[in-house]
Amino acid sequence: MAKSAVFILLATCVASLSALSPLSRSLDGLPADRPLNIAHRGSSGMLPEHTVEAYQLAVQQGADVIECDLAVTKDLLLVCTHDSWLNDTTDVASHLEFRDRVQTYRVDGRRITDYFTIDFTLDELKTLRKKQDRSYRDQTYNGEFPMASFDEYVAVAKNVTNGRTIGIYPETKNPDFFNSILAAHNTTMEEILLESLQRHGYTEATSPCFVQSFDEDSLRFMSGRTELPLIYLTPVGLTNTKLAEISTFCSGLGTSKDTIVQVNPNTMKIIQTSDFIDRAHSYQLEVHAYTFRNEDQFLARDYGSDPYREYEMFVEIGVDGLFTDFPWSLSRHMEYRALRGSAISSHRLPYLALMTALTFAFSFNARY
């Protein structure tokens, strides 16, 4: 009798906790019962980032959303690349026909001498080939794939034939830099992006598209011109006052995973978890955490070199989406959680509360 009572108590506790529902999400076709698998620059852990091939691979590996940083070209088109300069991720330096394109610009307070997208037409940029800029990753695909244009990126999301909806997640990157040049053309990076999104049919609050930026002014500008959900990127935690302010023009936050699970950079051990997600949710802001990487150097030692354990911790804490360089790993982890088919797989189930219930139950059982 005592043993039965223990398991009834435990089941009741777990069922009560699992009844907590995730933050409401209503983007057409995207899953609302679990966190989003956001492929960071495509499947960038396996292929050179921001290429059609990396985006396609991410979709094949189960990503819900493919993410894209944007830059502007000389002919006022959008291209997918993490930086406004080119040397780090392309073979531009080997193209002698472009040797006179080196320029020095100030970007986000830094003077950078390099080749810049704004000095190349899209056709010229398409002659370049991408390379893997992280030396500890596979270098065998260097020189094989061209840069992806924004239109090509969107086409990957729209041309899925298995009935799935794939979301897009473009970012206005370095908008101040580009807008200082685009002023001569009476346009802005934001206007070019919103016009492109409208042309592709992304116009409604429920369209499967998030628009992100680290630049608050860029988001404020777009908030008056689109109903699409806007995401404010921040590497640090925000005060409640700032969260309230951001919630007036954004639908969510993209934040460093370190603001949620704090890790000592010297010992690589977890110090504590924060209340950032709960505070953001209290202002109806989704939280998408970045960036999850499989390599051991990016994992707290507490995870035992197992990226699944990191994913599990963030999902249990209640994150709404995860930016990952390895969408296949996250997809497999989500499949594992679904197969478990128990209350522990609930998106919003608080991990510590569950552990408390289990500890109590087993302690009770041991005594009785």
Automatic annotation (TrEMBL):
Q: Give the catalytic activity.
A: a sn-glycero-3-phosphodiester + H2O = an alcohol + sn-glycerol 3-phosphate + H(+)
Q: Name one Pfam family in it.
A: GDPD
Keywords (alphabetical) are: Glycerol metabolism, Hydrolase, Signal
Concerning CDD domains, the annotation shows:
GDPD_ScGlpQ1_like
User: Where in this chain does the record put each GP-PDE domain?
Assistant: 35-334
Q: Where is the signal peptide?
A: 1-19
Which Gene3D superfamilies does this entry report, sorted A to Z? Phosphatidylinositol (PI) phosphodiesterase
Q: What is its EC number?
A: 3.1.4.46
Judging by the UniProt lineage, the source's domain of life is Eukaryota
Q: Which InterPro entries match?
A: GP_PDE_dom, PLC-like_Pdiesterase_TIM-brl
- Identify the enzyme class: hydrolase
Similarity-based family: Belongs to the glycerophosphoryl diester phosphodiesterase family.
The entry's protein name is glycerophosphodiester phosphodiesterase
What is the originating organism of this protein? Clavelina lepadiformis
